[in-house]
Amino acid sequence: MLVRRGEPTMLYTRFSLSDGAERRLVLSSSDTHFDEEFTQTYGSPLGAVDCWVEAVEADGKVAARLRVPAGTALLVKSRVLWSADGVPREYSVSHYLAARTVLSTRTRRGRTTRPVPARVVVPRPRTEAGPAGPPLRHSATSVHGELRAALRSGLLPVGTRLDEQELATRFGVSRNSIRRGLARLAEEGLVRRNRRTGTTIERTIADLTLGNGTGWDPAETGRYRAERLSVATVPTPPFLARILRTDEPTITVDEYRVYRDGRPFIVYLRYSRAGVPTRPLSCDSPADFDELFAQAHGSEVNRIETTVHAVRAHERTGRLLDVPPSTLLLLKERLLIDRCGTPCEFSHSYYAAAGVALSTRSSA
Question: What is the CATH number of domain 213-354?
Answer without folding.
Answer: 3.40.1410.10
